[in-house]
Write a structure and sequence with these properties.
The structure holds 2 protein chains of 2 kinds.
Chain A: H1 3-9, E1 12-18, H2 24-34, E2 45-48, E3 56-60, H3 68-77, E4 83-87, H4 89-93, H5 95-99, E5 121-123, H6 130-145
Parallel strand pairs in A: 1-2, 1-3, 3-4, 4-5
Helix pairs in contact in A: 2-6
Chain B: E1 3-7, E2 13-19, E3 31-37, E4 40-47, H1 55-59, H2 64-71, H3 79-94, H4 100-129, H5 132-153, E5 162-163, E6 166-167, H6 175-200, H7 203-209, H8 217-222, H9 227-231, H10 261-284, E7 301-310, E8 313-322, E9 325-332, H11 334-346, H12 354-359, H13 365-368
Antiparallel strand pairs in B: 1-2, 2-3, 3-4, 5-6, 7-8, 8-9
Helix pairs in contact in B: 2-3, 3-4, 4-5, 4-10, 5-6, 6-10
The chains are: A alpha/beta, B alpha+beta.
Chain lengths: ~150, ~375
């Protein structure tokens, strides 16, 4: 393991972006990093709100019309190498908001996240469980560590 | 953050500080504009609408059972309140009797949700204060509630307890579950009282939050604030005293006098033992019998309204029924009426207290983004 990977593995900064879900996933993700029960900080995973210092972008929600542009801008602001995790049913396939009417398209929902930015790992669940979020972040780590 | 400076007539520089929609201080997306003079906030403006999903429009024409479970997805914090109120509308419209045991279980779910919502508020408030240790301690207490909710509903966030005519069979409370709830209540009460002791006796925190974000009683009533935000200014108002489901229970309506951040935080701390008290009464006197009344027929109904008290205030749902499908659905959540209070509370204080003043009203902008129709009179 190179020195770069070694140091990267010891300071993984996660940025959470909320794009119009129901708040359930966001609280679970914050809970998974801050709460002493799951405490991702013990694995050197930190929550940040600054895209410039983030390594992993966690996106929740079905991406509403007004959130599409900010999401792209945040993705561009994160330095390489980066990984994107889509967390929750809404981020994976639009959730109930997009699909409850079958094939009739909704003008409000631009998602899922796949349509807007490339996604590296997907965490299912409505709402996601903190354990799953942790494993999602871990599965995205090789992208960061093996990058040249 | 954009700053446009302009020199006013008095030679005082008025600055506009804009945050959002995605900003480090706020988890949820919303936009706030602060007009600042000499680092003191002169005016504040909150704009919502970023996460508009058009839920009322999606509900139009759905079968009523499907629409009920969709209302739960409005908010991940007060999800049980939404599904309960939505089910109440259908029950009121068709005229369905709900078994007493189901009412008790619904009350238990609602009070557990009140516990986790208030604990989340306290954690969030402490994080905005900059006291992350307290925030982590409260998150730890909150885990107990989440585990209880997961045990009863099968999920940590969206539990879907209420269905038309009662509660889901999954949410039946047997002896083992009652035992676990009872043990959980003891743990939460002990830890919350311990936290309250430390919180009130910390001079740094108390001096930081006293007199910040003051909302007077007159203004709170004028701005139509609801729930704990209104109660913290001394107005004794709680819809639970009028609700049918809460008739068998005895509880106190907590009020505070000052309407500042301290009153709001203490409101939540004092409401937690009341909620625990209601849960204890409910599991002690839990009636025997069925939990679901299935002997009802769907029928058409005109627009029916229902108000209930949720952790943040008054929640309103209304819809009409046509061939078992939902028509003209309207949802009004407590946060939308509290926006005026948030704007007012931020004014007149230092800019570093503005976020705290907004957070003290317990905003939930996910709930808030409904279709709003403004009619000129």
């Amino acid at each position: 393991m190179s020195l770069k990977s070694y140091s990267r593995a010891r300071a993984v900064h996660v940025m959470l972006v909320y794009t119009g879900g129901c708040n359930g996933c966001d609280i679970e993700i914050v809970n998974c990093i801050l709460s002493p029960k799951y405490d991702a900080e013990q694995y050197k995973v930190f929550l940040t709100w600054n895209p410039r210092e983030a390594d992993v972008l966690v996106v929740t929600g079905p991406v509403t019309k007004h959130n599409e542009k900010p999401l792209r801008e945040i993705y561009d602001a994160i330095p390489e190498p980066k990984a994107v995790i889509a967390a929750g049913a809404c981020a994976l396939m639009g959730g109930v908001y997009k699909n409850i009417h079958g094939d009739i398209p909704s003008e409000e929902i631009m998602g899922p996240v796949d349509n807007i930015i490339p996604v590296d790992a997907k965490v299912p669940g409505c709402a996601v469980r903190p354990e799953d979020v942790l494993s999602g972040v871990v599965s995205a780590l090789p992208l960061l560590l093996d990058a040249k | 953050m954009n700053e446009n400076n302009k020199i006013t007539e008095k030679n005082v520089i008025e600055t506009e500080v804009t945050m959002g929609p995605v900003h480090s201080a706020a988890i949820e997306p919303y936009r706030v504009r602060l007009f600042v003079e000499d680092e003191m906030v002169k005016d504040a403006e909150i704009t919502v609408g970023v996460n508009h999903r058009g839920i009322e429009r999606i509900m139009e024409g759905l079968p009523v059972e499907k629409a009920n479970s969709l209302t739960e997805k409005i908010c991940g914090i007060c999800s049980n309140s939404h599904i309960w109120n939505s089910v109440l509308v259908a029950e009121k419209a068709i005229g369905i009797d709900v078994p007493e045991r189901a009412q008790y279980i619904r009350v238990i779910m609602e009070e557990l949700e009140r516990l986790h919502s208030h604990l989340l508020y306290l954690a969030h408030g402490n994080e905005v204060l900059g006291h992350e240790t307290f925030a982590m301690r409260i998150f730890y207490i909150r885990e107990t509630v989440m585990e209880l909710l997961r045990m009863i509903g099968g999920n940590r966030v969206q539990y879907g307890a209420s269905i038309i005519g009662g509660v889901r069979p999954r949410c039946e409370l047997d002896a083992m579950r009652i035992q676990k709830i009872s043990e959980g209540m003891d743990i939460i009460e002990e830890k919350v009282l311990d936290f309250a002791d430390r919180f009130v006796s910390d001079p740094m925190i108390m001096s930081r939050i006293t007199g910040v974000g003051v909302l007077t009683r007159k203004q709170a009533i004028k701005l139509a604030a609801t729930g704990p935000t209104l109660r913290s200014t001394g107005v004794e108002t709680d819809l639970r005293t009028e609700m049918e489901a809460y008739e068998p229970f005895e509880f106190n309506v907590i009020t505070q006098d000052d309407g500042d951040v301290k009153s709001n935080l203490l409101m939540r701390v004092l409401e937690i033992p009341e909620a625990i008290n209601i849960i204890r009464q409910a599991i002690k006197n839990l009636p025997e019998g069925k939990i679901t009344n299935r002997s009802w027929d769907m029928q058409d109904a005109p627009i029916t309204k229902s108000y209930i008290e949720v952790p943040r205030g008054k929640l309103y749902h209304s819809y009409a029924l046509e061939d078992g499908r939902v028509r003209n659905s309207i949802v009004r959540t407590p946060s939308i009426t509290n926006i005026g209070a948030m704007q007012y509370a931020a004014v007149g204080h230092h800019i570093s207290d503005a976020q705290l003043a907004i957070v003290q009203c317990d905003p939930c902008f996910t709930c808030t983004d409904r279709a709003i129709q403004i009619i000129k009179i």
